[in-house]
Amino acid sequence: MTKLQIRGQNGILIKHYSLRKDYRQMDKKNGLIVSWKRANEIIASIYIVAILAIFPLVFNNYYYDILRVKYMFYYSSVIALFVLILMAALIYMYVDARDYQWENTRYVIKQFRKKALNIADWAMIIFMVAVTISTFQSDYFYESFWGNEGRYTGMFLILLYFVSFFIITRCLKFKRWYLDIFLAAGMIACIIGIFQFFEIDPIGFKEGLSWDDYRIFASTIGNINTYTSYVALISGMSVVLFVNENTFYRKVWYTFCVIISLFALITGISDNAYLALIALFGLLPLFLFNSIGGIKKYLFLLALLFSEFQLIDVIISRVPEHVLEINGLFNIVVGYDKLLYIVTGLWGTTALIHILETKLFKESCLQKKSNLGRWIWLILIIVGIFCVGYILYDANIKGNGDQYGSLKTYLVINDDWGTRRGYIWRIGIESYRKFPLIHKIFGYGPDTFGIITVNNYYEEMASRFFEKFDSAHNEYLQYFITIGFVGLTAYLCLLFTSIIEMFNACSKNSFLIAISFSVICYAAQAVVNISVPIVAPIMFTLLMIGVAAARQTVDMRDKV
User: Fold this and answer.
1) What residues contact 237, with CB distance under 8 A and at least 6 apart?
2) Which residue, 150, 162, 161, is CA-closest to 446?
3) What is the DSSP letter of 532?
4) Is the Cβ–Cβ distance between 373 and 308 less than 8 Å?
5) What is the pTM of this model?
6) Rounded CA gap, 17 and 27, in Å?
7) pLDDT, tens digit, for every residue of 385-430?
């Protein structure tokens, strides 16, 4: 054992101790912090499994109480997460106080103070503050807090997002298998939904339902709009994981996930799915078009998608009595008389590029990476946006909707547009214009859209549509009206800055791109859909995982 003796100028022994013993004590101190972090990681991982793998499949009395059951499961999971994290902190602080006189606690607090809040953190804080102000200044405090007059998307639910965000982004250590269990649960839900499309009810979800209800509910999720928003998350992730994967067995797994999720998205018989598909296949080239191999993968995915459209159309035509009817945009796609030629051309082009890439030009310039394709596609996107804007102007303002044929239904926005979404949006905007200034800034309270519209338009809704509307059927308009301009801006900043964080770190962690596209697909379909504690918690959890992984990647890069 190494000894160290310290003597003063008069030779008197001042200190005599063992270096090895001191190092052992230091190791124990460091070990306490490491074990504390490890405990937090385990708790966070259990929570991730609960939300990504169990939560989508949870039910009690089938569809009759599906929203309430999933809401209860979610808030119970977040409360359990918070309590366990707090208990772990108290236990380790007690040990630290007893054995090390708070040295480790002071060190952790010091390190925490050094880490400045990121833009996404501030966006989440402002989002929570806006929701809090909106709730406390609302004329409907109780309803705003609990969301019990809407879809349980009150202040309490946002508080759960807030708490879990700061716990997960600080405590979670990213693992690849998080994404795999998410896809595994998704495959179960998708397969159940596909069976139901063929009027096969494997676990008795639809027993006793009327025909109208039979058509509008799917899988273990609930309403078809909610179901397709969940499948959109799966499709976005599985497609990107597929194009990034080189290992054979994982490639097969992700190919299976792509096939099943796209099939489920189409047979979900909700048009909001097409916004997710447009976002996915519209933005994917910005990621893939830097090489001939990326172009090949994109064409393969397009060929696969349109082949599924073609296959589903054939099945419907052959056995119409054994499948659910699909209307809307599906009929426009399969009704195009040259669809078969497109499918054939896509598969043929994909095969040709594969031959050129692998056989003829192994060492040619075709193998070199270039951003030219990305820039060209970006220009096409910008041009496309301007074209869509002009078409909407031409159809609605100039009144030339008839010249667009079957697309008129989707281009001319009136009260009947989008299963009466046009009417809902109109009365929502008209209500907002009448708000006092404070309510324009912070809204009338979370999830109070139904209260507002009933107060102002109940007789009109009852006489025209024989129902009341408790949601804007547009997640962004919903937030705009219920939590105001500040709340909506903070929410959009949260989504945008989180995605930017993930993209900035994706060079070191390619899985971040998959999470980003999953969130983007959800955000796209949210334009015509509502936020409910069935799918929104899954989206938020994926966002948290992505932010945690991005920061973990940046920290490792900085250390190197």
Assistant:
1) 179, 182, 183, 514, 515, 517, 518, 542
2) 150
3) -
4) no
5) 0.91
6) 17
7) 999 999 999 999 888 888 888 888 889 999 889 889 999 999 999 9
